[in-house]
Write a structure and sequence with these properties.
By secondary structure, the chain is of the alpha/beta class. The protein contains 22 helices and 17 strands. The longest helix is centred in the C-terminal third of the chain and has 34 residues. Keywords: ATP-binding, Coiled coil, Nucleotide-binding.
Length: 590
């Protein structure tokens, strides 16, 4: 790790990500080799096993000795961290009275308030909502000056990886593969590596290629790479179909469900309070859920998301209003708990799934339970394992499969990403793409939400609001509301609001683009075109050098050294030109 590094660490569960981080952070001694740290380097660590002293107050746990002298009040970083991570916690609350998620946020705040040169974070987004994850990404991006400080983060949150990291370390089979860029760039490079290694069509159509297709088509600006690189990626996926065939999904869903799925008609829910009164959680919600719809539900903790789900599943009757459910609707929920696997604890995985029949997916495939398990990453050895001996991630995958094998036509996912690594998440998303039914998702995993749903709604102040601008709109409106500029009316309440103004007024104006004169814009466009041409030329020349090195006499050390020096010069110039391309792009607002 060098000054300025922003590293994301990915890999399957049990591959050694946390072990690597503990070793680098000095918390675990290696059995061989040495760890060298520059003298005076200040290191901050958030480990998954870190706990806060439960006898302290929230303020004492975060700022330590400064809590008594009020030194923290004059430190803008401390104020920013506390408002970003624990805005809802009283400073004098005792840590032992907090929930596990709240204690985790206090532990993260304790690490971030200190002035560290290097910060190691292991699953920092756990227990953060969408807005909290967005705040954390912004904080880490502005924490150090350009080229200073270092960050290494282990997380399964792929949106967060793209937002904060510039290099990716993939841990597998006791080794580390290094990739330039965040998660999107990592996916692209893995696809390119697989393509070079095996050029057959079956290999080309692997899961990572489908993931890349969505990254390029469905999520603009996920990678800050020059246009010629984006063009190359688009050429790579030109013949890959969209991740979901929406027409076929809708057709099959309508055939299984009919026109009527679930309709909420002026539904309100009120709960009794300790003082004998009532607290209104949902107020006069009108929402018609159609066949094949894929919807994400956003909202702060306690906003009423779980209550809304219970209305949909029929586990809760509204205080007023009514819920109309279609005659053929079969609802299933993938809950955050794994209790439904308890009855199968002593059975082997293969024995549990053999009770179910094959299922038909929207792409026409009929898959057996065993094939579906393999698609979700189970090996033949794991199929013979007792359920009680499975890891948390394996139990989560088995739980998902059992829910799908029960053949529901409305599926509710409540925080489905817990305990799953990025590859398994991609496999799960791939399976959901071809599952014919209506999908309702509640998750703080922004990447998953954008990946598997086609529309998003927010539960705020008892109302349900449609978000044409997606999660970006939700984050912006949440911040405006907290700052007092948007107020309750910003989100609205009651019936679903389709935001008649569309999304044109929601997108921020490109930075600096509106300040350019016509001549300045033409000059910048001319320069950016020149930079792209030079980058393309350098890429071709670098490929030629690599080819020359591959066929060069390996005993000609001087010749190889000369080629290596040329390659380094090309790499240095490429880095400079890419930096200039990004600067020009920012000025042009592209």
């Amino acid at each position: 790790m060098e000054d300025g590094d922003r590293i994301g660490i990915v890999g399957s569960n049990g591959a050694g990500k946390s072990t690597l981080m503990k070793t680098l952070a000095g918390r675990l001694e290696p059995h061989g080799g040495a760890i060298t740290v520059t003298r005076g380097t200040r290191v901050g660590v958030l480990d998954q096993s870190d706990h806060v002293d439960e006898s302290l107050t929230v303020l004492e746990a975060i700022v330590g000795g400064s809590a008594d002298t009020h030194e923290w009040a004059s430190d803008p970083r401390i104020r920013d961290v506390m408002s970003g991570l624990v805005p809802d916690l009283p400073a004098d609350a005792v840590v032992g009275t907090l929930s596990g998620g709240q204690q985790r946020r206090v532990a993260l705040a304790h690490v971030l308030v200190d002035d560290h040169d290097v910060v190691f974070l292991d699953e920092p987004t756990n227990h953060l909502d969408v807005e909290g994850v967005a705040w954390l990404a912004e904080h880490l991006n502005r924490r150090w000056a350009r080229g200073r400080g270092a960050l290494a983060v282990v997380t399964h949150d792929r949106w967060f990886l793209d937002a904060v990291t510039q290099r990716t370390w993939e841990v597998h089979d006791g080794t580390i593969d290094v990739y330039e860029g965040g998660y999107a760039a990592y996916v692209l490079q893995r696809v390119e590596r697989d393509r070079i290694a095996a050029a057959t069509e079956s290999k080309r159509q692997n899961l990572m290629r489908k993931e890349l297709a969505w990254l390029q088509r469905g999520a603009p600006a996920r990678t800050s790479k020059p246009k010629f690189r984006i063009d190359a990626a688009n050429a790579l996926i030109a013949d890959v179909p969209p991740v979901r065939d929406k027409v076929q999904l809708s057709r099959m869903a309508a055939a299984r469900l009919g026109k009527d799925v679930v309709e909420l008609i002026r539904c309100s829910v009120r709960y009794p309070t300790a003082d004998g009164g009532e607290r209104e959680v949902l107020r006069e919600i009108d929402w018609n859920i159609g066949p094949g719809e894929r919807t994400g539900i956003l909202g702060e903790n306690g906003a009423g998301k779980s209550t809304l789900l219970k209305l949909i599943t029929g586990d809760l009757e509204p205080t007023s209003g009514r819920v109309k459910t279609g005659m053929t609707v079969r609802v299933a929920t993938l809950s955050q708990r794994l209790a439904e696997l308890d009855e199968h604890a002593e059975e082997r995985v293969s024995g549990v799934v053999k009770r179910f029949k094959s299922v038909e997916l929207s792409d026409g495939q009929e898959m057996s339970p065993t094939q579906l398990l393999e698609r979700l990453g189970f090996t033949s050895i794991q199929l013979k394992t007792q359920v009680k001996k499975l890891s948390g991630g394996q139990r989560r995958r088995l739980q998902l499969l059992l829910v799908l094998l029960s053949e529901p036509n409305v599926l509710v996912l409540d925080e489905p990403t817990n305990d799953l690594d990025t590859d398994v998440l991609a496999a799960m998303e791939d399976l959901l793409d071809s599952w014919p039914g209506t999908l309702i998702v509640v998750s703080h995993d922004r990447y998953l939400m954008e990946r598997v749903t086609d529309q998003q709604y927010a539960v705020v102040d008892g109302g349900l609001r449609h978000l044409p601008g997606g999660i970006d709109e939700y984050v912006r409106l949440s911040r405006e509301r907290r700052a007092g500029t948007g107020g309750v009316g910003t989100f609205g309440s009651g019936a679903v609001d389709s935001a008649s103004g569309g999304t044109a007024d929601l997108a921020p104006a490109p930075t600096g683009a509106t300040d350019l004169s016509g001549a300045e814009r033409r000059s910048l466009e001319k320069e950016i075109a020149s930079v792209e041409r030079r980058l393309q030329r350098l890429m071709r020349e670098s490929e030629a050098i690599h080819a020359d090195m591959a066929t060069h006499d390996q005993g000609d050390f001087e010749g190889l050294a000369r080629l290596t020096a040329q390659l380094r010069e090309h790499d240095a110039e490429t880095a400079e030109l890419e930096e200039r391309w990004l600067e020009l792009g920012d000025r042009l607002g592209v």
